[in-house]
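Changelog-linked ticket: thiamine diphosphate example.
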Amino acid sequence: MESLTAAEVVGRTLAALGVRDAFGVLGSGNYMATQTLHAAGAAFHHARHEGGAICMADGYARVSGRVGVCSVHQGPGFTNAMTGLTEAAKARTPLLLLAGEAPAAALRSNFRLDQAALATTVGAAAERVHSGASAADDVARAWRRAQVERRPVLLSMPLDVQAQPAPEAAPAAQAPAPHVPAASPAAVAEVAALIAAARRPVIIAGRGAVLAGAGAALEALGEATGAVLATSAMGHGLFAGSPWAVGISGGFASPVAARLIAASDLVLAFGASLTRWTTRDGALIDAGARVVQVDVEPDALGAHRPVDVAVVGDAAATARALLDAGVQGSGVRDDALAAEIAAGSWRDDPYEDAGADGRMDPRTLSIALDGLLPPERTVAVDSGHFMGFPPMYLRVPDPAGFVFTQAFQSIGLGLASGIGAAIARPDRLTVACLGDGGALMALPELETLARLRLPMLVVVYDDAAYGAEVHHFGPQGRPVELVRFGDTDFAALARAAGAEGLTARTVEDLDTVGEWLERRDGPLLVDAKITPDFCAEWLEEAFK
Ligand SMILES: Cc1ncc(C[n+]2csc(CCOP(=O)(O)OP(=O)(O)O)c2C)c(N)n1
């Protein structure tokens, strides 16, 4: 029998667990495990920075529902991945981060660092390959935790352990289906009573509802109660296509959505933590409204605002339990409401175009993109002032069509999470929407995008500034010259990296995107020059 090392068994076990794609940056500490995983059949997508690699695995997991896999070198390879790891932890992405590790006895190794402590500090779980004999089990345990606990798990591989002989991977046990707690009968009865008394209920579904696959159950609950349907920004797309869906609740809510949500007398939050962003600092929840919050995590209940009924339960299982209990509500879903909702999107909302001097109004740009791009799309969005425009104006087919890396509110994660999403869903056009600041922070992955020849669209909302900061401090009368930059030629940067580049100063300039859509033979970056002067209302409100 062929003799294997622990590192090889790690790779083989991951392949046996069904890993099809892995992302990472190779160094000596993760070389053997990754090479073996690749040799056993998984594609390896090499990033140029570990910060990109981890976001690729995160984006991949978000749109595919599979566990994302990222592989990095020990020490600096691992620390480079920290921001993306934190985002994945806060967004509850099931992900395995494979990392080399200095041997336990190498106390003065340059690479030495308490990786497990760092991982757990940011909300990931930490596991280790303990010995050659246990390597296969160690991998299977880390994998299971990622799935069951819906979070990233670091699997550290000490270099000395990697070299130990190890028994061939036993056929790895697939992780059991995650445990889904339903609400208790008492909680169901309490919520049912509130529903019976409500006249204008609204269901607000968040990322927990997306992770629970609760869309159909919540739509059925909406049917039974007459509720208006909304999502948090993180749940965007969950009710796509429903005539009773008003879109996103919070700062991104259209005037019609805001009116209907604020007029509700019962808020049913499923897997949504009702942050200040989702409630528009509380303004979208009427003072007399009753609030029910359903979440699998007890500590999420009431964390951002008081709730009348706090229910520990999975969003889908709890919605089904309510339906099984025969809940009935008296919300009115009539033709007038349907017509108001149908005509109430942001795209229908009139505005005065603020474009000037060869720079577009970001709303006009977004509406043009929505009309141009095929409906089967994945929209990945970075952070910054611009980040409201894509969710407000670009439709998505379902929640897997929307990757919103805002759990940690870091800029610079959007390009790489888009790359991961594009690899996971080649059947859809991925469009990564970035600010110029976030794009420059992610620049190494422009080379990855070009090298992998991904047929992906990158749109840079380029205001030549850290717009969020300009709009934050400018109105306070503070100087903002430190956060305004000279013009960056992103089209030239794209071409230098091996992608196509286009500079767009008007909507007509986007005609080239239409031509590219016909062939999609590689990535296209659009440097969309937008006016730095227009500030989105949601940001203005937030900074007041
Ligand atoms: C990693 C990180 N650094 C700094 C910030 C603070 N920050 C928030 S928005 C922003 C500006 C982003 O600029 P850009 O990407 O151009 O988007 P814009 O705001 O102009 O739309 C900054 C620096 C952050 N959120 N994350």
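Closing comment: Example verified and attached. The CA atoms of residues 303 and 533 lie 36 Å apart. Residues 383-386, 409-412, 435-438, 461, 463, 465-469 surround thiamine diphosphate (CB under 6 Å).
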